[in-house]
Amino acid sequence: MSNSATSDWDEDIFEEDDSAVSNLDEPQLSRKQKLDIRRKLEDRMEMKRLRAEIDDLDMSWLD
Questions:
Q1: In whole angstroms, how far apart are CA 14 and each of 26, 57, 63?
Q2: Rounded CA separation 9/34 (Å)
Q3: Domain of 29?
Q4: Which comes out higher in pLDDT, residue 25 or 59?
Q5: Is the Cβ–Cβ distance between 1 and 60 less than 8 Å?
Q6: Considering its fold, how many domains does the chain have in total?
Q7: 22 near 29, Cβ under 8 Å?
Q8: How many CB atoms lie within 10 A of CB 54?
Q9: N-term to C-term CA, the chain
Q10: Is the separation of the CB atoms in 54 and 5 below 8 Å?
């Protein structure tokens, strides 16, 4: 069960991307680009949180 719950996630969506990890202090970045980078980082954090929650649920279900 622990593998089936996490096997549906597409791991490639949240792979490191050079454009997403750029320096926010660069003056050439527009407000839209900064917001896009922030959104990507927040999405990555949310995915990590959800994975941890799924792992916890899998462990409690198996107990």
A1: 23, 22, 30
A2: 26
A3: 2-62
A4: 59
A5: no
A6: 1
A7: yes
A8: 14
A9: 12
A10: yes
Place of tokens 């799924």: 54
Alpha-carbon distances of 50 from 32, 36, 53, 63, rounded to whole Å: 27, 21, 5, 20
**Alpha helices, H only, the chain:** 2-6, 31-62
Provide the pLDDT for residue 22. Answer: 57
**CA 46 from chain center: how many Å?**
6
What is the amino acid identity at position 3? N
Give pLDDT tens digits for 2-41: 455 555 555 555 555 555 555 555 568 899 999 999 999 9
